[in-house]
Amino acid sequence: MTNLNEIRVSKWYFGGLASAGAACCTHPLDLIKVHFQTAKNSLIDGSRPTLLSTTSKIISNDGFLSLYNGLTASLLRQLTYSTTRFGIYEVAKQQLSSDGNVPFYQRVILAGISGAAGGVVGSPADMINVRMQNDIKLPFNERRNYKNAIDGLIKVYQSEGSKALFKGASMATSRAIMMTIGQLSMYDQFKYLLLTYLPNVFQDNPTTHLTASTLTGAVATTLTQPLDVLKTRLMNAGQNQYRSVGHCIGELYQQSGVIGFFKGYIPAFIRLAPHTILTFVFLEQLRLNFGTIVPKKIHVQ
Question: According to its record, what are the GO cellular component terms (predicted)?
């Protein structure tokens, strides 16, 4: 138990564990999002796709378990990408202040740096994740059929070279920066505002964690969706399909206009909001039960 003058702070690896746990729950929604983003046009079988129709088609064609295609890659991605970004962010915050309570502008800067590092580290697993999720859309004889994430990494390295492991890395890193700013810094800020200005309503408990993470999910989805669409297309592209990021942007704009950059926004939000909520709820439970106890300080935000 901690007293009023103490607070528990997260250990550096809690974020990776929490994100992996959340990924186990939300992976089917992530897969459906990828299917929206890699569609060549806005129509599926002559009718506009919906979350329900896309889900039904996947299950009817490949079975219920196909909703979990690429789960090993998703877990590997969270254990690399999220462990890196959460770890750097938490360690840096605690270096600036023992209880991790720092001004908002510092949170944004730390989140951007942490997101960039996480994007680079997690890019290979992210690329395999996209490919494994999208495999069931391909004709049977064109499927990559990776057995798991490690098998996928080995096959890509052997058949396409080491550079292919970082295909779309620039866009993945840009997205990771925006995602980490939208999630980590905004969650801390929303939580601070709730605890500071509505102390009679919100305490350091699951209700506050749920409220702050829900608001965070909406911000993060809006900030990252255009980059997420481009990242998905680049990572799933065949060899020499796109000459550059600019070429990918130009083709997407010609095909779908501005709205194309927000393709899959609804399934992305439906996936990202629960994932964000679960990640921070799991993270807070790890912090409250297993975190490091430090003296509590008063800070001006």
Answer: membrane
